[in-house]
Amino acid sequence: MKLKDDKKYARIFGAVLKLVTKKGLAGMTMGDISKEAGIATGTLYVYFDNKDALINALFAACRENSVMVSFRGYDAQQPFKPGFRSIWMNILRYRLHNFEEFIFQEQCYHSPYITAATREKARQLAEPLYALIARGQKEQLIKNLEPDILVAFIIGAMNELVKQIHYTGSTLTKTRMNTTFDLCWDAIKA
Amino acid sequence: MKLKDDKKYARIFGAVLKLVTKKGLAGMTMGDISKEAGIATGTLYVYFDNKDALINALFAACRENSVMVSFRGYDAQQPFKPGFRSIWMNILRYRLHNFEEFIFQEQCYHSPYITAATREKARQLAEPLYALIARGQKEQLIKNLEPDILVAFIIGAMNELVKQIHYTGSTLTKTRMNTTFDLCWDAIKA
Amino acid sequence: MKLKDDKKYARIFGAVLKLVTKKGLAGMTMGDISKEAGIATGTLYVYFDNKDALINALFAACRENSVMVSFRGYDAQQPFKPGFRSIWMNILRYRLHNFEEFIFQEQCYHSPYITAATREKARQLAEPLYALIARGQKEQLIKNLEPDILVAFIIGAMNELVKQIHYTGSTLTKTRMNTTFDLCWDAIKA
Amino acid sequence: MKLKDDKKYARIFGAVLKLVTKKGLAGMTMGDISKEAGIATGTLYVYFDNKDALINALFAACRENSVMVSFRGYDAQQPFKPGFRSIWMNILRYRLHNFEEFIFQEQCYHSPYITAATREKARQLAEPLYALIARGQKEQLIKNLEPDILVAFIIGAMNELVKQIHYTGSTLTKTRMNTTFDLCWDAIKA
DNA sequence: GATGAATGAGATTTCATTCAT
DNA sequence: TATGAATGAAATCTCATTCAT
């Protein structure tokens, strides 16, 4: 008697991510997923109770992953701007390199699959970002607007940039990354 | 003799927009739409060949509408910044006041309902915005980056702001609109 | 106030006949018929109570027409064989020149559209043919088998010949008509 | 693990054949078929892509079956006439005993369900019959007409006979079979 | 646990018929 | 009478989920 197979979770998640950019969340059936993952439909139900649970689990995983990556290498001791910059770059790189995860999360956010609980949990994961903004404001380096507005601005701009870059297929040189960061920085700096 | 009723197009479109915020694009059936519109299911097929066609038509209509509104009152003779500002405000107001249309368009963009042709047509409608950016660059008022990047930045930031404002239910005072515009302007100004 | 238009009956019947070879009886909708006839769907219901009535009416018309033509020029005074021959030729020519009517009747015969009453009426129209066969048998020119069998044989063979000729697109010369008649005659002659 | 069930194909085909004589090809729904076959509607789509595919598959199966049976017991070494006779009898018996299959094929032939490919494949299966006719002509036992004409004549006559016999409910004694064969033979013999 | 056939509720679409003009 | 939009019942087909192996 075999135990649940961790590799299979990965295969299933991978399949969903691959499909979401092609078919969207709406047009993706359990049959599609199982086929893409190379397993039987029934097997999906060994690993997840139902479609909702599957989507929610992947959403949570992506979210956690994305936050972890964002703050990688961040040192609260260093001055604000370079710290903020490295986080900004982390997020940008993450979304570009994990474009499918990024799109998946976007699609989920306004879908009926995601429960209120999952949504709330996702929001909490953004806390460190709010804290960072607060620090910048305290140090009078960042405009003194509501943090919600600032975060929305920063994230919204970045999201669209990522799509732009991905869909036009343009390579992102260091210089270009710098200039786009400057756009953001000029917007929010005090 | 009964003729095809223009009001019915409006009723159908209205129904879809009402439903999309409640159920999402995925969870919206033709039955839901017809019921919401107060007509028989079969009647939907008098006006549209199928669900895809219906969604595409509404998408195109929203897109066109949104562009038309954006440039309302724009006078190319006036100096750049106030012109740009009025357009930016138009877009913001439009998305806030027609939040359902805005969400609908976002949901559509990565869905399998929208055809490549519709997507391309949507892109073309953004041309005036690109032209405006070009003018700003020519007058050396705006940073000399690729217009794609600048547009993505402006639009992305605004989209997220709109959602932020809508979901938190905060009222948008004139002062707040001004400060958010300043965020944008500071980002892109030369 | 206009009266029912005789030309319209013809247009409707013509449309059905044109469609039956293309789409078959099964795949033919009232919409198809009205479009092909160049009238509105609703108008069909001015002329016929419903689809069944329409099909039955056309079936009856075809049947009557086909019988009328079969015995055209037949003179009961002339000797049997030439009389039988001319009738046989009449039937063959009719089916070839009115191939659509012929196919339509075949399709109807085993369809749920045709009522038992219509079917029975159709059978009665074949009476003269039975009478003819009886005469041939009385004159000991034709095999003394049950008339049903003989008629089935003659008609069945001819029907298949007609299709053969029509679909291969071969032209039917006088000589070929004669040889095919001889096939039939050799079969049934005493 | 459950595997696709060959018996289920048979059940489905059986259901269609049972229904076609009752309701005709037109009036037969997928719901009717599944009910008659004692399975769920959805299950039909496990076995066939759609209604067309189902009808085409059954048509092909009937055709193949009918040809196989026709030449059962045929020995090319024996003289022509008894060989031809045994095949003729095979075909007649097959159509009588599998009347539903026979009617189904007839209904299909001019229906929109059957694709050109299926039609062509059906034609090819008739080749052995053409070869047989050719042999008879070579041995100068059969009239020297185009084989198409002869086959059409033989088959057409038989088809109508079969219907005649079936619908009148008359039992087919050996003597009657012989006399009807003689009709056919007298027609085509040199 | 793994499989994929089986299920049936529900989605999309069709179409004979009606109805307002 | 003529029109063709409107209807809704019924047809086809899909798909999340279950179940037998």
UniProtKB/TrEMBL annotation, chains A, B, C, D:
Keywords: DNA-binding. Residues 6-66 form the HTH tetR-type domain. Residues 29-48 bind DNA. It holds the Pfam family TetR_N. The keyword DNA-binding applies. It comes from the Bacteria. The keyword Methyltransferase does not apply. PANTHER family: HTH-TYPE TRANSCRIPTIONAL REGULATOR RUTR, HTH-TYPE TRANSCRIPTIONAL REPRESSOR FATR. This is TetR/AcrR family transcriptional regulator. It comes from Chitinophaga qingshengii. The lineage of its organism: Bacteria, Pseudomonadati, Bacteroidota, Chitinophagia, Chitinophagales.
